[in-house]
Amino acid sequence: MFWASYALAALAIVLAWPVPILLSRAKWPARSPFTAMVLWQAIALAGGLSMIGAMLTWGLEPLGDNLLAGLHGLWRILLEGAPASTLGLVHVFALSAAMLLSAHLVFTLLLTYYRILRGRHRHRDMLNLLSSPSADTPATLVIQHPTPVAYCLPGGARSVTVLSDGLLNMLSKDELSAVLTHERAHLAQHHHLLLWAFAAWRAALPWLPTSMLAQHAVNELIEMLADDEALREVDRMTLVRAVAIVGSGSPAAPGAPKPPAEQQARLSAASPLALGAPEGSEPLGIAGRLSRLLTPQPPLPRWQQWSVLCLSALLLAVPTTLLIAPGLLD
């Protein structure tokens, strides 16, 4: 496992800095947002696995030539009283760092979920007071406010789409269908789970370029995916008008319920520039979405999409193999 630990460390560094920066500057994700979403998830998972794996394999190196043998040796030391003379101080430090980082990531994931769930419950309680069910559209609540507002509130069977009456007064029937399809696509494709996972990743490792760039990219990609789903129901110019109307709204005035934190992050059109992004670039806000819709690019060829998906699978397979393959590099 000696060389495996170095290979994992090198992979973690590559996935933590140059790869996410290069991907954040690429133009092709707008042509195939699903493929890009899979790649970002693979980068995040492989990066985290490589970081923890590098420390774990380094710490277990004196106890076995692969992860299972090393863990077995550690088990014997901790629970069976086997001698620990083969472990040096640096190995103990590496094992402790791996365990602490793993615990930190799991704890942050659970804490982020708790905070999101608590925010949803509070927001739902507020909606119960300030909104009324739509007479024409199921699973839709309407708030009395002139600002155009549209977002979804996940909750399993209790998931709802929230609209303002100001928005309803501005939209035609087809434009309303575009907005509803867009928001329901977020729910049907479980985008809130992606937002949760990448928000937790960002909260756990805020100094890591991967976490910041990945969260920013995911916010953009889910909007593209929802827009593409809306295009299945309405024509392009109808969706453009609907996006422009929704985007013309200002922050809600006092008394109107604000979307929960996860929805505010998704709806925000003016977040800070991502680290490593070209100077003067902006997130995919309303202007970016309108530009993508008005000047559509052809989707990536199938062979390129499959190449990216295969690369994503390879990114996950490499650290896994380095961890469990017996004596692969020794």
TrEMBL record:
InterPro entries xref list: Beta-lactam_resp_regulator, Peptidase_M48
GO molecular function, one term: metallopeptidase activity
Cofactor(s), by name: Zn(2+)
Keywords carried by this UniProt record: Hydrolase, Membrane, Metal-binding, Metalloprotease, Protease, Transmembrane, Transmembrane helix, Zinc
UniProt domain Peptidase M48: residue ranges: 135-197
Pfam families: Peptidase_M48 (PF01435)
Entry's EC annotation: 3.4.24.-
Domain of life: Bacteria
Spans traversing the lipid bilayer: 6-26, 38-60, 89-114, 306-329
Textual note on the cofactor: Binds 1 zinc ion per subunit.
UniProt record similarity statement: Belongs to the peptidase M48 family.
Record protein name field: M48 family metalloprotease
Organism: Arthrobacter jinronghuae
